[in-house]
Amino acid sequence: MTPTTVIEIGRNAMEVLLLVSAPLFIAALVTGLLVSIFQAATQINEATLSFVPKLLVIFVTIIVAGPWMITLLTDYMRRLYESIPGIIG
Predict the structure, then answer these.
(1) What is the pTM of this model?
(2) Distance CA 50, CA 13 (A)
(3) pLDDT at site 88
(4) Which end of the chain is more exposed for a tag (fewer CB within 10 A), N or C?
């Protein structure tokens, strides 16, 4: 196994990680922004107010994007396991 192969495997793992986590981060970011705008407009300064909407939005995002995320992860793992003979010898 060469250093180039190790770097390639690590790069692919980071790409998959970013792709899988991006929908959840974007949903939480947008929800937090909307709640912050609502809090600024109504002058309600409650730190726990954004928790429940973020939780619900992330739950819905997992339901909607979950099959895609699982498919992406299983495809990556299958490619990784299939490449083991080529990596070793």
Answers:
(1) 0.80
(2) 31
(3) 83
(4) C
pLDDT band at 45 (very low <50, low <70, confident <90, very high): confident
Q: Which amino acid is at 85?
A: P
Distances (CA, A) of 31 to 40, 60, 67: 14, 12, 22
| Plot region of 46 (φ>0 → left; ψ -120 to 50 → alpha; else → beta) | beta
- Rounded to 5°, the CA angle 28-31-32 comes to 80
Work out the percent of the chain whose per-residue pLDDT is above 90: 71
Residues 6+ apart with CB under 8 A from 13: 76
**Element of type H or E holding 57:** helix 51-82
For the chain, domain boundaries:
3-88
For the purposes of burial, counting CB atoms within 10 Å of the CB of 80, is it exposed (0-12), middle (13-18) or buried (19 or more)? Answer: middle
- Tokens describing residue 72: 């992406």
